[in-house]
Amino acid sequence: MPTPRSRIGRSAEIAAAAELGKRGYRIIASNYRRKTGEIDFIAEEDGQLVFIEVRCKRTGAFGSPAESITPAKQARLAATAQCYLDEHDVKEVECRFDIVEVVQNDEGGLLVKDIIRDAFCA
Predict the structure, then answer these.
(1) Which of 16, 31, 79, 99 is least enclosed by beta carbons within 10 angstroms?
(2) How many domains does the structure of the chain reveal?
(3) What is the 3-state secondary structure (H, E, C) of 56-112?
């Protein structure tokens, strides 16, 4: 049975996917899992392969959603992205990591606050 936290996470991913589509991203895969970790979305945008992490927070009291991605999480995302590249024999393609920040509004709905392109280097 899904927990309230997992339901909010799934709703945030749905909102993020809709916004990514509006902005011209073409989603190739979602919830790509390997033992190194999970990538919420893998997409193509302007000829680049984009690994996307969705982060949702209810309040800004402890920083932005993007600030919750620690160096350890970045390393897991990079390792998982490398798994994808190896499995699909992807070479000679520009890649980047984007973060979708989703926040809860006063009515409890979820809104995409920002899409941070090239959020960190791997």
Answers:
(1) 31
(2) 1
(3) EECCCCCCCCHHHCCHHHHHHHHHHHHHHHHHCCCCCCCEEEEEEEEEECCCCCEEE
